[in-house]
Amino acid sequence: MAQVTLDNVRKVYPNGFEAVKPASYNIADGEFVVLVGPSGCGKSTMLRMIAGLEDISDGALKIGDRQVNKVDPADRDIAMVFQNYALYPHMTVRKNIGYGLKNRKIDKSTIEAKVQEAATMLNLTEYLDRKPSQLSGGQRQRVAMGRAIVRDPSLFLFDEPLSNLDAKLRNQMRIEIKALQRRLGVTSIYVTHDQIEAMTMADRIIVMNGGIIEQIGTPAEVYHSPASTFVASFMGAPPMNLLEGRVDGGMIRVGDTVVGNTTLAVTGPVTVGIRPEDLEPSVGGQLRIDVSIIEELGAHRLVHGHIAGQALTMQIGKDTAIGDGPIPVAIKNNAVSLFDHQTGNRL
Amino acid sequence: MKRAGFSTRWLPIMLLLPQLLIIVIFFYWPAWHAVRSSFFLQDPFGFGETFVGLKNYASLFKSSAYMRSAWFTLFFVVLVTFFSLAIALLFAVKADKVLRGAKTYRTLLMWVYAVAPPVAGVLGVIMFDQSWGPATEFFALLGYDFRLGVNYYDTAFAMVVVSVWKQLPVNFIFFLSGLQSIPRSVREAALIDNRSASSRFWDITFPLLAPTGFFLLITNITYAMFDTFGVIDVLVRGEPGNNPLTLVYKVYVDGFRGNDLGGSSAQSVVLMVLVLAMTVFQFRMVERRIHYT
């Protein structure tokens, strides 16, 4: 088990492109950290640097107490699960799982016992003598997991491991991976572009965009107090409503409507963020929303409308009756986030 | 599925006819002639033939020159196949790691492919020329008197070197594309699982290259046996007497120099049987070959 420390870790490619801007953070022992962001944000590069598959251009990376910048991937005491599983196609499941142990000079009976143990844990015992091509996607994913856990590494790295699976299997595997990580207590870094995976699995989320870490925090922190308009719009489906507004005298206005008040010492134009579920139809509501489309999602409904000429989405319960046209809407307490009009940073 | 058909029975036959004609005229007819004349003793000046049954075959296997040529062919094929595969694999593995200027590098290595076998032979003659060949001078530097066309083993050496050199680019291209079709993540997974580069190569890369390797093995054996004719013809410079000959070249020498058409035909029938056996073997193996998804 180990903690991971990054100190100004940076990645610059030979062509001058800076894929990861200097990043510093700590991952505690046993913590499950999810790196999330859109494609090309540098999250995979970050993971690959930690794995040793990419050189670190600058800064220091520590796994445990050891600086590992120049250590071979095989000697970093890590295990990685790849997006397309990366199983060895010519080896049986048994050999796939045992390959990492075989090269660490562990005797045969121990390897066999460990492979059996991992296979039992992952319900793979009956597939041990099959080749990867004879397995389904979910089973291959399990073999990839088995290959990682059998080694007892001090750090698990996951590179979008569920993105090749169909939605139903993905939900199931999500829970299995999380449960497995809890049981083994191994520090884990998990890369995904799927904000639902990030929210559900993480102890802490690191949101990245354009090579920069936008926010580090627990799922609740990231969701309820996004550090920037990027985080606000990336985390959550449907995303947070971001409206052009202004503050004067502590009153937050969107158009002519007062949507709340603030104790922050700001005046002038701001970006106002409101989560769709923090809006609710109410007879005495201070907002007038002009409803244009209602999306029926079963458990709830998405109401799309306009306020002061700006698009807005509201999430309401399945039993809430609503019609087209202007309706009064209330905002829940403390539900308004304010962002800098220019930089997008939280105020 | 709807079966597409022809309205008349003659159209498909007409469409197939040109191809069938080519096969019959250039393959079956000569092959039949070879089989037929292998049972006859031909008059050297074409004035007649006498049926001799299997005597041509019998004398073939009693002939020490033929057996010597057969053994030489075996060694030649093994050496050429092994070295052209091994060196090409080494080049491919190295070229695969080159990132900068990879294309130029590969193109340069591929150029040799465009050289025709007789031209390769001529280049070999120049390299190993008795009075001013660079290779001969190199050997002289090492204190060895290299004599192409005079010393049996020197000639054999030159034949193997030129044949290997000629075959390298093809093998190189196939190995390189084979290497590049191995998923990057599989190699990376191996990088994490195994710290030794050489054992990674033998455990992961080499088995995944096996289908390519097997295909190349067969084509290289065929090449060494049959397609090296041009190289050998130029290198032995019409003095085949005391020089090493492959079976294919011996067919030509005995038939067209020695005017022993019957014996030469018998030799080509033996070669046909050999090719047939190899083809059967290849198809058997290809069927059993593992396909990776």
Automatic annotation (TrEMBL), chain A:
Occurrences of domain ABC transporter (ranges): 4-235
SUPFAM superfamilies: MOP-like, P-loop containing nucleoside triphosphate hydrolases
GO MF terms held by the record: ATP binding
Gene3D superfamilies documented for this protein: 2.40.50.100, Nucleic acid-binding proteins, P-loop containing nucleotide triphosphate hydrolases
InterPro entries linked: AAA+_ATPase (IPR003593), ABC_transporter-like_ATP-bd (IPR003439), ABC_transporter-like_CS (IPR017871), ABC_transpr_MalK-like (IPR015855), ABC_transpr_MalK/UgpC-like (IPR047641), CysA_C (IPR041193), Mo/tungstate-bd_C_term_dom (IPR008995), NA-bd_OB-fold (IPR012340)
Keywords attached to this entry: ATP-binding, Cell inner membrane, Cell membrane, Membrane, Nucleotide-binding, Sugar transport, Translocase, Transport
Annotated family: Belongs to the ABC transporter superfamily.
Listed NCBIfam families: PRK11650.1
Protein's recorded name: Sn-glycerol-3-phosphate ABC transporter ATP-binding protein UgpC
TrEMBL record, chain B:
Annotated membrane topology: Multi-pass membrane protein
Ranges that cross the membrane: 12-31, 70-93, 105-128, 156-179, 200-226, 265-283
InterPro entries per UniProt: MetI-like (IPR000515), MetI-like_sf (IPR035906), UgpAE/MalFG_permease (IPR050809)
ABC transmembrane type-1 domain span: 70-282
Protein's UniProt keywords contain DNA repair: no
Keywords: Cell inner membrane, Cell membrane, Membrane, Transmembrane, Transmembrane helix, Transport
Annotated localization: Cell inner membrane; Cell membrane
SUPFAM superfamilies: MetI-like
Record-stated family: Belongs to the binding-protein-dependent transport system permease family.
Function: Part of the ABC transporter complex UgpBAEC involved in sn-glycerol-3-phosphate (G3P) import. Probably responsible for the translocation of the substrate across the membrane.
Subunit structure and binding partners: The complex is composed of two ATP-binding proteins (UgpC), two transmembrane proteins (UgpA and UgpE) and a solute-binding protein (UgpB).
Protein known as: sn-glycerol-3-phosphate transport system permease protein UgpA
Annotated source species: Marivivens donghaensis
